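Recap slide: Helix-turn-helix protein, sequence and predicted structure.
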Amino acid sequence: MPGARLSQQDRRTIATGLAEGLDYAAIARRIARPTSTVTREIGRNGGPAHYRAEAAQRATSRRARRRPGAARTAGGAAMADGRDPAAIAEFAGRFADLLVHLGLPRMVARVLSCLYVTDSGSLTAADLVQRLGVSPASVSKAVGYLEAQELIRRDRDEHSRRESYLIDSDVWYRSMLASAQRNALLAEFARDGANLLGPATPAGERLDTAAGFLQDIGTDLVRAVEQRRRASGPG
């Protein structure tokens, strides 16, 4: 019943799913609810690292007894600027789901979406572990992938020697240039294969066509991002 309230058993299933490391979409399928419902439920009741079924049930009961317009509990309190943490958590979950749909690994998508909805755009590995409720090893693997794709960069505090992972305004510029470089490498490799097999052979012609396509795409991509960067001006 998508429109009905979550039951205590639903909340126990959510807690079990989190303990098993399932993503929000998989947990939602277990209780036959929209992913947004699960995201909102977890976000307003401590987040993935601190969600407890019994505590969430009690908090929901307390909210239900309050008069209309009363302040929310700490788990769902509005931020100082009026933003709703639960709505932000829901957006981050949907953003991660979209990134997975576009081909990113689940943990990589969760880390990236978490960084994007953080005002500073910067979090330490410990921050990510706490916010996502996952192991340090999972975070380390995800940030390694994102660094390789140049979607984030590493920043070290000289005083505390703590490392943080940062998204800045140049992230997509650097990522697109990295993509163009990968296309250039693929084009060069395909061209070598075409020369080896012979451009007049079917296999050689196929590789030669691929090389030309990849080279043209890489050139167009670099031209487009440079043009966009110039149009945007400094910063």
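Residues 171-232 form one domain.
The mean pLDDT is 83.
(End of recap.)
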